[in-house]
């Protein structure tokens, strides 16, 4: 195990034979400790396969790769945790750290873990709402709250009524303008039918002349 850039990182190296039966290898860095709940082993396998020869995907290389990676992570993770525990014990022997702080931190993490997975104890949301409503009804501030709510409702109603009036006025003005344009269009495009009989008589006169 080697440390890179001051971090607890180890290199996993996987050796395999490519399609030409040549020795090949891929490498990936793994942070320790490895959190199996938040980090996905399949994602690491996919990243390694992307760096390998494409033919390995069709040779079921991912099966042996995943098994080797899982075993490597388990072994290196255990080594890291063992070394970390030894360092803590050595610091405790030398009185180099606050043991009470470690105890408090451990207790806090333990409580957080218990609260996360334990069944909820206490009133339900329905009970909390019922209690809050009961307090509001019997509160001395209820009358003032109702007055304010009535004032807000009146303001909203007035704004809504004014908006409806403005919309109605705008629609009416638009309709009048459209009617005016249509009437002007009818006047300019409607032919004068009174001229038709005179035109017909003139055509007949010149026809029999």
TrEMBL record:
Pfam family, one: Fy-3
GO cellular component terms attached to this protein's record: cytoplasm
Superkingdom of the source species: Eukaryota
InterPro entries: Fy-3
Entries under PANTHER family matching the protein: PROTEIN C12ORF4
Protein name: Uncharacterized protein C12orf4
């Amino acid at each position: 195990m080697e440390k890179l850039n001051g971090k607890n990182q180890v290199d996993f190296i996987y050796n395999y034979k490519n399609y030409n039966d040549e020795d090949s290898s891929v490498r990936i860095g793994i942070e320790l400790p490895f959190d199996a709940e938040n980090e996905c082993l399949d994602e690491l396998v996919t990243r390694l396969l992307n760096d390998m020869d494409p033919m390995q995907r069709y040779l079921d290389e991912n099966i042996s790769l995943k098994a080797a990676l899982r075993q490597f992570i388990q072994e290196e993770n255990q080594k890291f945790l063992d070394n970390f525990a030894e360092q803590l014990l050595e610091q405790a022997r030398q009185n180099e750290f606050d043991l009470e702080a470690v105890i408090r931190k451990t207790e806090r993490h333990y409580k957080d873990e218990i609260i996360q997975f334990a069944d909820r104890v206490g009133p339900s949301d329905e009970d909390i709402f019922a209690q809050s409503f009961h307090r509001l009804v019997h509160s001395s501030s209820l009358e003032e709250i109702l007055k304010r709510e009535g004032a807000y409702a009146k303001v909203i109603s007035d704004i809504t009524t004014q908006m409806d009036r403005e919309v109605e006025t705008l629609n009416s003005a638009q309709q009048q303008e459209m009617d005016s344009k249509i009437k002007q269009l009818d006047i300019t495009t409607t032919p004068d039918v009174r001229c038709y009989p005179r035109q017909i008589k003139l055509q007949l006169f010149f026809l029999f002349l």
